[in-house]
Amino acid sequence: MTLKVLLITGRSLRQGVGKEFGKSDEKYMESVSLCEISPKDLEAIGAKSGSNIRIKTQHGSVVVKAVSSESIKPGMIFIPYGPYANILLGGDTNSSGMPTFKGVYAEIEPAIEERVLTIKELVEQYYSR
Amino acid sequence: MVIYENVLCSVCGCLCDDIEVTVEENKIVKVRNACAMGTTKLLNYYKERNTKPLIKKDGKLIPTNLDEATSKVAEILVNAEYPLIYGWSLCSSEAIKVGIELAEEVGGVIDNQASVCHGPGIQALHNSGLPTCTLGEVKHRADLIIYWGCNPEDAHPRHLTRYTLSPKSKFIKDPKERKLVVIDVRNTITAKKANLFINIEQGADFELISALRAALKFEEIEEERVAGLAVEQIEEFAEMLRSCKFGVIFFGQGLTQSLGKSKNIEAAIALVKDLNDYTKFALIPIRGHYNVAGANEVTAWQTGFPFAVDFSKGYPWYNPGETTAVDILRRGESDAALIVGSDPLAHFPKEAADHLAKNPLAVIDPDISVTALAADVVIPSAFTGIEVSGTAYRMDRVGLLMKKVVDPPEGVLSDEEILRIILKKVRILKGVA
């Protein structure tokens, strides 16, 4: 099942520690390729904590790991700042200079058959000339 | 074995200056007082590190020497019509000064990470001023702390213990005298430590600030709920603000990156000005990287503007929305880029980062960043605050000197030294040396 949600991106301690191991380190990848989601929404789409989900916005689509979190209200998801979140964000700043990193309309659905790309694969797939 | 005391941490805008580092044979073996991020950096910075300049040949990055790498960067910048020179929050203020000189020489745009973090706060400051104070004043005097749209327990892990909730204070002897309020859309770890958690609706900060300003002045609010909160709750909170001795609002990207952006901060500044009619109140942006505040300071005293400075007209021109990095990239205007102390491919929306990767791209960074993976030339630099010294500005814009504790690997220079070599080569190519 697909569910409409509001995407928030931001810092997490795990991401902050992960980046200090190096951006090519697995700990960094694991810290930014996840999506915190309320248990209620996770159940609604028929997915489990730890399984992969696909997130789509009008700007892009990416597969990340779902992590059940009581700190997130139903109807909202949280992805740490990083290359996975960026795929889902638009560059329009409405002449402010600042893109909208928080409050982006998104859809989520289970992606059990799909895998999360490594950062190197992500760069090759999305950014190679 | 040497033990260095009062070492500055080069991770977040707290710029903690009480770190103890033990060095044995030019290697950091023990770290005290730092948070998880600082400890991880100090103990792991040298692992998985590239110390050789890299250049792209036949689609692959291969090792080269510093001379060829710096010549390539100079060539990329001189051949470009409108190069973007971006980054700066993870390097010294001395390096930023050379970067600005380089941007002026090549007629490019120099922008820093404020563009995608606290730029809206700076724009608000232009219009309204900033009633602010230092973290020292907060530590010794503030009895009401508000974290609005920020989660320091995750992003600035020692902020609460060093400055707000439980620091050693001259005038507030009992930590129970301090009250902590968190306003956020998520029930974060910081929110769980608060005396009062206000769980606001996403993107409704401006409405809440406006309602608070009305409630402060005992004006009637003609709604039952604002920003997802009952009006009675807003009125109680207004009374809490009014009755403190010294309140401080720390604001984060929950305000600057959500709907409203600079208008949210302008409203927050107006609220703090109103509160100063009743008590003492201040506002501090909770800055991310260790020298992002320095990037704004140095760029402002060198060019007159704090970020997004365009030299293509032959003089500094500043217009956020036009000269900001994401806008330039999204419109496809730049034709080359030099990234220093930043990782925009990991932090810009894909729509903007795409253009960065499509054009000649040079990176100067101690680490192999995500951006470096897509670059044409990569020059490794020494870690400021670990291997080389330099000045950085804390989130409250207090300048501090970062000392080195170990030597950099042989042949690895500071950002400042690398930029000076490139600047010299640019001037030779332009025939102005």
Kindly provide the radius of gyration of chain B, computed on alpha-carbon positions and rounded to a whole number of angstroms: 23 Å
- Please write the CATH class name of the largest domain in chain B: Alpha Beta
Proportion of residues in β-strands of chain A: 25-35%
Categorize the overall geometry of chain B. globular
Whole-number mean pLDDT of chain B: 96
In CATH, the topology of chain A is named Barwin-like endoglucanases
- In spatial order, strands of the major sheet of chain A run 1-5-2-4-3-6
In CATH, the topology of the largest domain in chain B is named Rossmann fold
Question: Which features characterize this protein?
Answer:
heterodimer, A: 129 residues, alpha/beta, Barwin-like endoglucanases, 6 strands, 30% strand, globular, B: 433 residues, Rossmann fold, 18 helices
Q: How would you sum up this structure in a few lines?
A:
The complex is a heterodimer of chains A (129) and B (433). Chain A is an alpha/beta fold.
Walk me through the topology.
The complex is a heterodimer of chains A (129) and B (433).
Chain A: E1 3-10, H1 13-21, H2 26-32, E2 34-37, H3 39-44, E3 52-56, E4 61-68, E5 76-80, H4 83-86, E6 102-110, H5 119-127
Parallel strand pairs in A: 1-5, 2-4
Antiparallel strand pairs in A: 1-6, 2-5, 3-4, 3-6
Helix pairs in contact in A: 1-2
Chain B: E1 2-7, E2 19-24, E3 27-32, H1 36-44, E4 54-57, E5 60-63, H2 66-79, E6 84-87, H3 93-106, E7 109-112, H4 119-128, H5 135-141, E8 144-148, H6 152-155, H7 159-164, E9 179-184, H8 189-192, E10 196-199, H9 205-216, E11 225-226, E12 229-230, H10 231-242, E13 246-251, H11 253-256, H12 262-275, E14 280-285, H13 292-303, E15 309-310, E16 317-318, H14 325-330, E17 337-340, H15 344-347, H16 350-358, E18 361-364, H17 370-373, E19 377-379, E20 390-393, E21 399-402, H18 415-430
Parallel strand pairs in B: 6-7, 6-17, 8-9, 8-13, 9-10, 13-14, 17-18, 18-19
Antiparallel strand pairs in B: 1-2, 2-3, 4-5, 4-19, 7-15, 11-12, 15-16, 20-21
Helix pairs in contact in B: 2-18, 3-13, 3-18, 4-12, 9-10, 9-12
